[in-house]
Specification:
Layout: E1 2-7, E2 15-20, H1 24-31, E3 38-42, E4 45-49, H2 58-61, E5 64-69, E6 82-87, E7 105-109, H3 114-125, E8 129-133, H4 147-151, E9 156-159, H5 168-189, E10 193-199, H6 209-223, E11 228-233, H7 240-246, E12 248-249, E13 252-256, E14 259-260, H8 265-276, E15 283-288, E16 293-294, H9 295-306, E17 311-315, E18 337-338, H10 343-350
Parallel strand pairs: 1-6, 7-8, 7-9, 9-10, 10-11, 11-15, 13-17, 15-18
Antiparallel strand pairs: 1-2, 2-3, 3-4, 5-6, 12-13, 14-16
């Protein structure tokens, strides 16, 4: 690991240590890319940091790396084989207004739900100013109520709101109306980054009204002009019970003959926090659980945890959110971020599932 040190005159006048997990020959090339995420260690806390794409590439290409020492860095309780300093030409103006600060106002739409409440807590733990926005707090994306006040001074908006109805027409109206209210309000307020949570496989399953609505939401985000990242997640482990009950007819649970890749909400939140505190990718990234299970095996684990006995049938015509599934409709691609917690481990610990 190389530690690239540079004094950043932030509000607290603290020294930040930029840590690049790379080799010496690669360091200069990485620094030449203004979109490359760096890691910041402030008071032993690791935070994301990057130069925004708007900053001139010359800021980094004029940088010169020079060896400073190979001793242990006592200043930040960091251990380094080689420590490098980042020198920037004095003729280059470095405006800290253009650097992504380690302290931001972040508005989480849907900040009181399963994912939202955990994300709010984690971001606050990491030193961010976070507003948990929801209709109960006077912020309603469906009507636009409270948006100007909530977004004032915000750098980042995370949209986790969900439709109260999954009926095809209602869910489409919800996501379209919410997007058409929220995204222009963000542009007016000067929000610099929009993050949304979506669903792995949404664009592969057009027969599902809910997933069509999620794709419509994504299209509005892409057309908004606000820098964005869409995080698509696989199915939450916590909803295994609800999925099982919805597929039950009498004593039989009929499920698709397909794969599912459940992920626990804590792992989703960890990935979301990385995305929120990282740079916009103006695209889609995926996160999923660490294992792919057959749908019938997934449901069987839920029933075992509940100590319930039902017959589980795998049926290739069984529907999920109103659509039939191909074998890999709901699983991530090869570039996805992967959670750490196996479903069987989680459900045996929790004892049940929603």
């Amino acid at each position: 690991m190389i530690l690239v040190e540079h004094i950043l005159e932030d509000a607290r006048k603290r020294l930040a240590v930029l840590s690049l997990e790379t080799s010496v020959p690669e360091a200069a090339g990485i620094l030449a890319n203004p979109d490359t995420p760096l890691r910041v260690v402030c008071d032993s806390e690791v935070l994301p940091f990057w130069m925004t794409p708007a900053d001139p590439r010359a800021l980094f290409t004029r940088a010169a790396l020079r060896a400073r020492s190979s001793a242990r860095s006592q200043r930040r309780a960091c251990c380094a084989i080689t420590t490098w300093a980042l020198d920037i030409s004095k003729s280059t103006s470095v405006s800290l207004e253009n650097l992504r600060s380690d302290h931001m106002k972040i508005v989480v739409i849907g900040g009181t739900g399963l994912i939202g409440s955990k994300l709010v807590a984690l971001l606050r733990q990491r030193g961010q100013e976070v507003l948990a926005a929801s209709p109960s707090s006077g912020v309603n994306t469906l009507t636009g109520e409270g948006l100007p006040k909530a977004l004032a001074g915000a750098q980042v908006v995370v949209d986790l709101a969900n439709s109260p109805s999954f009926e095809d027409t209602a869910v489409m109206k919800f996501f379209q109306a919410a997007g058409r209210n929220l995204l222009p309000a963000e542009a007016t307020a000067g929000v610099r980054y929009h993050v949304a949570l979506s669903i792995v496989g949404a664009d592969r399953l057009p027969d599902s009204g809910y997933l069509r609505a999620k794709v419509a939401q994504e299209e509005l985000i892409k057309a908004s002009g606000v820098p964005y990242t869409i995080l698509r997640s696989t199915q939450f482990a916590e909803f295994g019970g609800a999925i099982t009950d919805a597929a039950t007819d009498g004593d039989t649970v009929r499920v698709p003959d397909a794969l599912i890749q459940p992920i626990v909400s804590d792992d989703v939140v960890s990935a979301l926090a990385e995305v929120v505190l990282g740079p916009p990718v103006s695209g889609t990234v995926e996160v999923g659980g660490p294992e792919r299970l057959r749908f019938d095996a997934f449901v069987s684990l839920v029933l075992r945890a509940r100590n319930e006995k039902r017959k589980v049938v795998a049926d290739r015509h069984a529907r999920y959110f109103g659509t039939e599934l191909a074998d890999e409709s709901l699983v991530t691609g090869s570039e996805a971020r992967i959670g750490q917690t196996r479903f069987e481990t989680w459900i045996s610990r929790s004892g049940t599932s929603r």
